[in-house]
Amino acid sequence: MAKRKSDVGTLYKGSPGQWSWIAHRITGVAIVLFLFVHIVDTAIVGWGPEAYDRVESVYQNWFVRLLELGLVAAVLYHALNGVKIMLFDFWPKTTRYMKPLSLASTGIFVLAMIPIAWIIIKGTLELVGWL
Amino acid sequence: MATHTDERMEVQAPRGLLGTRGTRERPAGGFELWAWLFMRISGVVLLFLAVGHVLIMHVFEEGIDRVDFDFVAGRWDDPLWLTWDWAMLSLALVHGINGLRVVVQDYVRPPGARFAVNMIFYTLGFILFVLGTVVVFTFDASRWSGAV
Q1: How do residues A35-62 score in pLDDT, each as one tens digit?
Q2: By the number of CB atoms within 10 A of the CB, which of A76, B18, B104, B134 ranks highest?
Q3: CB-based burial label for B140 (10 Å; 0-12, 13-18, 19+)
Q4: How near does any CA of chain B get to the CA of A53, in Å?
């Protein structure tokens, strides 16, 4: 059976734009759900040090540290991909370089995540006493 | 040629909204155009506010390990960080809830359910905005002795 082709690719094996669109959506929803919780936990600061420091101590858990890493990655990805979106939207000529620009924004994301992941994972390993 | 076009239309069902570059096409006008524009303007501001916030709180120096009541009290002693945090609270909430509205538009089809889901997010957003604003502007560390 011949594969159907179009000039923008098939729906799920298509242009990088489709993958980045899905990733943008997933990271966006994840961030806003975290934001809902985060406004409440930060608001506890208005109830004094004892209450706030107790809430803050959830970060003394290795699994929460990994979620923290995920959050930083989500924010960074969403931000960089957002820049790419605006580039295409406000300067349509840049869509001619869609592939290299997608590669560039993903590349910057991956490069930035290397030291960030190292810092957070190192902190997590120190927390559980493996380092 | 005609079949080719038909095929592409079929594969590219959500084309009108999505376009082919992973961005939403600019709406023609009205509220949707303003919402589209707002997402981009607030996005630029949040690029600095939210990415900066995340790096300061979770990556630089000791990261989250140094964040406690005294740390927050010290920061909120400075009008710059108060303004930063409140601007971020407002923009991120509106940006995030408008984003949810767009997602809901795509996945929740029945009008009643869509309205209900949107209203839940709007109400939650409003409550959180009020809560965050009150806490940011009424916070006074001196109420707890021993604090900064």
Answers
A1: 999 999 999 999 999 999 999 999 889 9
A2: A76
A3: exposed
A4: 6
Q: Are B93 and A37 in contact (CB under 8 A)?
A: no
Which of residues B24 and B40 earns the better pLDDT score? B40
Predicted local distance difference test score (pLDDT) of residue B16: 43
- CB pair distance less than 8 Å for B11 and A4: yes
Q: Quote the Cα angle for A123-A126-A129, to 5°.
A: 155
Lowest mean pLDDT among A23-27, B14-18, B49-53, B107-111: B14-18
Cα dihedral sign, B44-B46-B47-B49? positive
Question: What pTM was estimated for this model as a whole?
Answer: 0.85
**What's the token pair of residue B60?**
């630089």
Return d(Cα B60, Cα B135) in angstroms, integer. Answer: 25
DSSP state of B130: H
Token representation of residue A88: 């295409």
Contacting residues for A118 by C-beta, under 8 A, at least 6 apart: none
Of A31, A82, A120, Cβ closest to residue B96: A31
ipTM: 0.86
Span between the terminal Cα atoms of chain B, in Å: 73
Give the pLDDT confidence score for residue A7 in this predicted structure: 52
Q: Is the pLDDT at B77 greater than 90, yes or no?
A: yes
Structure token pair of residue B86: 């409140």
pLDDT of the residue at A4: 53
- Minimum distance, in Å, between the CA of residue A66 and any CA atom of chain B: 12
Collect all residues with Cβ–Cβ distance below 8 Å to A90 and sequence separation of at least 6.
Answer: B40
What does the angle CA A94 – CA A77 – CA A120 come to, to the nearest 5 degrees?
A: 150
